[in-house]
């Protein structure tokens, strides 16, 4: 059974092949009449709220000819305390793939352990592989390649940062993360990526990370479930907002990524989000194409 828990479950070859397939889905949308999910159902399980992940996965299943079954925590017995293991056993007797958006990593692992069909990570506290696939497709489409670029992450060392570190390890990327003390990614994640040939470095100065960067990426400073920390986080991240001034030393052809939702004036200025270097809206669209490719990857390797 092949689950997609982290990008490492793909490996470099499958990751690149998945991006190639996503490119074809983008190019052929509206023209490709094949329906590889015809007769199949996919359970889309959301314990955390979602816009892009839900819409992209639901449309991906439909456009591939399948039937999406959307399940929310409050709209299911999970919200009343039914064990994840029981939900996994029931769903996997009825559907062909499960996607799971949740909080703690242990909840995803429990779903995968007790499922007899592939489970895809639609977000946990320690990773967001489906978003990273869309980000990588966007970079490659915008700049023509993935390798040989300088990547900058500005902000929290959160699940997105961790997935970017993992991607750097798989692809041998140069990645500089600027995060304040107390909000930096786990050092073991950086060491693991660098042991694979990446060049990952963590700094506290955003200007150091942005200087000469081809890809500049950020995310909200306060994620879902961290609302009680917002005041402390806003103080800690003062000076980490993506502004035109900060980006003035980036590569002339740099692109700006943000997985959304964006808080204008907090982690990114409106004129950056809406500016000529922003590829944020193309990045959001990529979620559809890479979701299709990820679903087919899981089905083709089932068993």
Task: Briefly say what this structure is.
By secondary structure, this protein is of the alpha/beta class. 42% of the residues lie in helices and 14% in strands. Strand 6 (174-178), helix 7 and strand 7 form a beta-alpha-beta unit.
Question: How would you describe what is shown here?
Answer:
This protein has twelve helices and nine strands. It is of the alpha/beta class and 303 residues long. The protein has a five-stranded parallel sheet with strand order 7-6-5-8-9. It has a four-stranded parallel sheet with strand order 2-1-3-4, with helices on both faces.
Q: SSE layout and pairings?
A:
Layout: H1 11-28, E1 41-46, H2 52-63, E2 67-72, H3 84-91, E3 97-101, H4 105-114, E4 119-121, H5 129-143, E5 150-154, H6 159-171, E6 174-178, H7 187-195, E7 199-203, H8 206-210, E8 215-218, H9 230-236, H10 244-247, E9 255-258, H11 270-273, H12 280-300
Parallel strand pairs: 1-2, 1-3, 3-4, 5-6, 5-8, 6-7, 8-9
Helix pairs in contact: 1-5, 1-12, 2-12, 3-4, 5-12, 6-7
């Amino acid at each position: 059974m092949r689950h997609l828990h982290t990008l490492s479950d793909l490996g470099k070859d499958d990751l690149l092949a998945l991006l190639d397939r996503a490119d074809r889905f983008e190019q052929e949308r509206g023209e490709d009449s094949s329906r590889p999910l015809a007769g199949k159902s996919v359970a889309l399980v959301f314990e955390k709220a979602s816009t892009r992940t839900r819409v992209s996965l639901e449309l991906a299943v439909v456009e591939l000819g399948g039937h999406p079954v959307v399940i929310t925590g409050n709209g299911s017995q999970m919200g009343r305390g039914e064990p994840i293991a029981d939900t996994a056993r029931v769903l996997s007797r009825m559907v062909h793939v499960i996607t799971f958006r949740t909080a703690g990593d242990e909840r995803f692992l429990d779903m995968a352990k007790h499922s007899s069909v592939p489970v895809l990570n639609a977000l946990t506290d320690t990773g967001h592989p489906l978003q990273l696939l869309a980000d990588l497709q966007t970079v490659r489409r915008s700049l023509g390649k993935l390798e040989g670029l300088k990547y900058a992450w500005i902000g929290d060392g959160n699940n997105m940062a961790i997935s970017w570190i993992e991607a750097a390890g798989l692809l041998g990327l140069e990645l500089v993360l600027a995060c304040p003390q107390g909000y930096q990614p786990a050092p073991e994640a950086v060491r693991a990526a660098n042991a694979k040939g990446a060049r990952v470095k963590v700094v506290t100065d955003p200007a150091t990370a942005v200087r000469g960067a081809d890809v500049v990426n950020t995310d909200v400073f306060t994620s879902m479930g961290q609302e009680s920390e917002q005041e402390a986080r806003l103080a800690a991240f003062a000076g980490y907002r993506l502004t035109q001034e900060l980006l003035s030393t980036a590569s002339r052809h740099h692109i700006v990524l943000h997985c959304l939702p964006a808080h204008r004036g907090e982690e990114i200025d409106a004129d950056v989000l809406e500016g000529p270097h922003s590829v944020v809206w193309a990045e959001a669209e990529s979620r559809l194409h890479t979701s299709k490719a990820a679903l087919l990857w899981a089905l083709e390797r089932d068993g």
